[in-house]
Amino acid sequence: MTKILTGGPLPNIPWEDKPASVVNAPVWRFSGNPVIDRNPVKGVARIFNSAVAPFEDGFVAVLRGEQVNGIPHIYMGYSRDAIHWKIDENKIPFVDEEGKPFMPGYAYDPRLVKVEDTYYIMWCTDFYGAAIGLARTKDFKTFVRMENPFIPFNRNAVLFPRKVNGKYLMLSRPSDSGHTPFGDIFLSESPDMIYWGRHRHVMSRGLEWWQSLKVGGGAAPIETDEGWLLFYHGVSGTCNGYVYSIGGAILDIDQPSIVKYRCENFLLTPEAPYEERGFVANVCFPCATLQDTETGRIAIYYGAADSVVGLAFTEVNEVVSYIKDHSKLTDTDTEIGIR
Ligand code: BMA
Questions:
Q1: Distance of CA 292 from the midpoint of ligand 1 (Å)
Q2: Interval between CA 161 and ligand 1 midpoint (Å)
Q3: 65 alpha carbon to ligand 1 midpoint, in Å?
Q4: Whose CA is nearest to atom 12 of ligand 1?
């Protein structure tokens, strides 16, 4: 039996049992999807690729909100049950280290990861080109922007939820300025969340068609006794455009640039009407999970069709067994990742 090792009990995690009709994957959708629908709050037309975390006796979310002028920014959400969200209609008021307003020109695809006593927000920011923005908060009232960790172009930054060998670790996906038709996941480490280096390659696009164009980190890796469980996105280029599916891999616990298992099958692919139809059709884009160490339950939050937020469920033992049973590694997966 695989166990989740860190994060602690989360008895109020949202949950629904697996329906008997789900036979092709170890991940199933919440019957009440989408959990955040279009026009959720004044001035925001769509909320999608967004991240959640437990906070105090409820939950918080950093939400990718596409304003009615089309420019994305990050908004706060608050919830008692991680299903029904109260959304702040003001953007997150980022400040610099001196406390002066320091707003990004745009901000999208946020992740939210707690390391020790601090919550970090990573997003795609305007840094003379798309790059990674970073901020910290302890109370979700003051949000201090930190140095941008990497030069452009880069997206899909995902911090690990604890230091490994005394260092902070962050996944990212170097890219170009457009709708990047390539992309591998890399790992970088830092002693202080300011200086990043010792970059390692983690995984390239896969051999399988659903992830044959590019891959990118998704939710913060979950520590299990089999390794770091990573939900990521894999993209296929079809004659009608890109299709984003959710994939699963398990990274070595002490050297996470080594992929131990990588599932050849997608775990979730656009099938529901709110995933197949929307502002950008055929997108399932995972950004966060909640997990309960007691039961092994995992709730996955993903953007659907760049329009709404979806919620899906799995259980750690079931998903890890499925990934191991269907693992197909490439040569670069098993390398330490430096040349
Ligand atoms: C990517 C990002 C995501 C988006 C996806 C599909 O490049 O911009 O925010 O969900 O494309 O449009």
A1: 29
A2: 24
A3: 13
A4: 280
Fill in the amino acid letter for 272.
Answer: A
Strands 197-203 vs 185-190: parallel, antiparallel or unpaired: antiparallel
CA distance 313 to 331: 31
- Per-residue pLDDT, averaged over 224-249, amounts to 98
CA distances from 182 to 177, 206, 212, 235, 264 (A): 12, 11, 9, 9, 19
Which ligand 1 atom is the nearest neighbour of the CA of 283? 6
**pLDDT band at 31; cut points 50, 70, 90:** very high
> In this predicted structure, what is the pLDDT of residue 182?
96
Mean pLDDT of 207-234: 98
pTM: 0.98
Q: What pLDDT is recorded for position 56?
A: 97
In this prediction, residue 139 carries a pLDDT of 98
Q: For position 136, what pLDDT does the model report?
A: 98
Average pLDDT of the chain to the nearest whole number: 98
Please give the pLDDT value at position 296.
Answer: 98
